[in-house]
Amino acid sequence: MKIAIQIPIKSRTSTRVPNKNFRDLNGKPFFSWIIDEILKIDRHNIDIYIDSEDESAFKIIQKHYAEKSAKLKFHQRHEWLASDNANGNHLLSNFAAHHADYDVYTQAFVTAVTLKSIVIKEALDAFLANLDQYDSMTLVHPENGWVWYNGQAINYQPNLPNGLPRSQDAQYLKETTGLYCITRDALFKTSCRVGEKPLLYEVDSFSAVDIDTMEDFRNAENLLKELSKRD
């Protein structure tokens, strides 16, 4: 079974965190946190692709990894896919259309700076061991509280006296947006990274960290500094 891991890395600067993908985070390039962990997964059937609209981004990463750079491949996406109009579904569908000979497609994001190789491997193994039940997998983190979306209560009934559960009983699962897996058949059928029968693989709050804003960046920087002191 052949597995492709797509790591999207825009060369274009981020509007919310300037130069996010290439700036320093606790002594390492931002992009290297997830790539370091993926490179630790020792499986012969995995190909790792850096997906970018600009080959210069790939060359920066190649230079950083030097002797390990041979383990990294490059996929050049269309310029539109680097715009704010494109989403993760567009990225993975486009990638698969150009590399259609894989059985499973995995999408990993550099914003998941605390996601460790052991979690990635365990989640991937859990998915591969249950392909008869699931067509895709995404990491989720359980959270508690009352949720509203588009002006509607999602997990409780605020207009009923008995519709208010205890907050500890109002649990929901939030996607970490760090890692996705899907079979080739499901991806080509739906054009989405989450299929019709997804495995929701639960991870802890540490593994669920995602960098989207400068506040996220500073929080992650402080967390990683604190962990490095303990080590």
Task: List the defining traits of the structure above.
6 helices; seven-stranded mixed sheet; alpha/beta; about 230 residues; two-stranded antiparallel sheet; 11 strands; about 30% helix; Spore Coat Polysaccharide Biosynthesis Protein SpsA, Chain A
Which helices and strands, and how do they pair?
Blueprint: E1 3-8, E2 24-25, E3 28-29, H1 32-39, E4 46-52, H2 55-65, E5 72-76, H3 88-98, E6 104-108, H4 117-128, E7 136-144, E8 148-149, E9 152-153, E10 171-183, H5 184-190, E11 198-202, H6 214-230
Parallel strand pairs: 1-4, 1-6, 4-5, 7-11
Antiparallel strand pairs: 2-3, 6-10, 7-10, 8-9
Describe the structure.
It contains 6 helices and 11 strands. The protein has 231 residues and is of the alpha/beta class. It has a single domain, classed as Spore Coat Polysaccharide Biosynthesis Protein SpsA, Chain A (Alpha-Beta Complex), CATH 3.90.550.10. The strands form 3 sheets. It has a 7-stranded mixed beta sheet with strand order 5-4-1-6-10-7-11, sandwiched between helices. A two-stranded antiparallel ribbon has the order 2-3. The protein has a two-stranded antiparallel ribbon with strand order 8-9. Helix 2 links the parallel strand 4 and strand 5. The longest helix has 17 residues. It is globular.
Task: Kindly summarize this structure in a few lines.
The chain has 231 residues and is of the alpha/beta class. Helix content is 29%, strand content 25%.
